């Protein structure tokens, strides 16, 4: 199924007062390739998760057909200026190349004494030329992984990490992440640059260290970047439960890296 693209960023050696139960000295940022969340409240979010769960055990052929239908519906809606995060989340998202996408935190966080959302924007030509490109995943079970692995062998990636400050709680609500904070009112400001040189992005040692030994959560980090709003509060326990289940299932305990 074609789902929205996600990105997890873990910053190491971060000192300061920690969030409750946040181990180590790291700061996690978890983002998706869209500016708004799929549900306005924790209750609506739960309903979406239950709907998605019903597709989890479906046969691969059934899921592929469903995804194709949902993608067609979503493209039709977008053609008339309508966006449906719910349809995208159920498998109707375009099969976009992850390296060309812009990623958003979608939910708000503390930014010291302020409230902010975050964005990671590709800026190097090797990345921006892939913006909007779609991957042909027909007859390839690992099409996305194989595509990114192949592209990263020759890609010099540069991204800007940007912050969008809340300036008006009515226009930039904390509790409803389905409302986009318009850039005309609250522009994104670049605060850091991230670079990645050509590499084998799927080496066995990287897969072991990142996919098997790490966990990512919006609740791993500093008190100065506390997640805000009901959706973020609802994410805490499911993230923890998912990580603990994966650790037990794989027989590989997770830990926060020191460096």
Give an account of the 3D structure.
The chain is globular. It has one domain (6-41, 95-250): Catalase HpII,  Chain A, domain 1, CATH 2.40.180.10. The protein is an alpha+beta fold. Strands 3, 4, 5, 6 and 7 form a 5-stranded antiparallel beta sheet that branches. Strands 1-2 form a two-stranded antiparallel sheet. It has helices spanning 42-56, 60-79, 85-89, 125-128, 143-152, 204-212, 230-250, and strands at 6-11, 27-32, 103-104, 109-111, 114-122, 157-165, 188-196. The longest helix is centred in the C-terminal third of the chain and has 21 residues, at 230-250. The protein contains 7 helices and 7 strands; from the N terminus they run ββαααβββααββαα. The model is unreliable at 61-75 and 87-91 (pLDDT under 50). The protein starts with 5 loop residues before the first strand and ends in a 9-residue tail after the last helix.
Strand content bin: 15-25%
Query: What's the total number of strands?
Result: 7
Contiguous uncertain segments of 5+ residues: 61-75, 87-91
Distance between the termini: 35 Å
How would you sum up the major sheet?
A: 5 strands, antiparallel
Which CATH class is shown?
Mainly Beta
Return the domain count.
1
Number of helices: 7
Q: Which CATH-level-2 architecture? A: Beta Barrel
In brief:
The chain has 259 residues and is of the alpha+beta class. Helix content is 32%, strand content 17%.
Helices and strands, with pairings:
Blueprint: E1 6-11, E2 27-32, H1 42-56, H2 60-79, H3 85-89, E3 103-104, E4 109-111, E5 114-122, H4 125-128, H5 143-152, E6 157-165, E7 188-196, H6 204-212, H7 230-250
Antiparallel strand pairs: 1-2, 3-5, 4-5, 5-6, 6-7
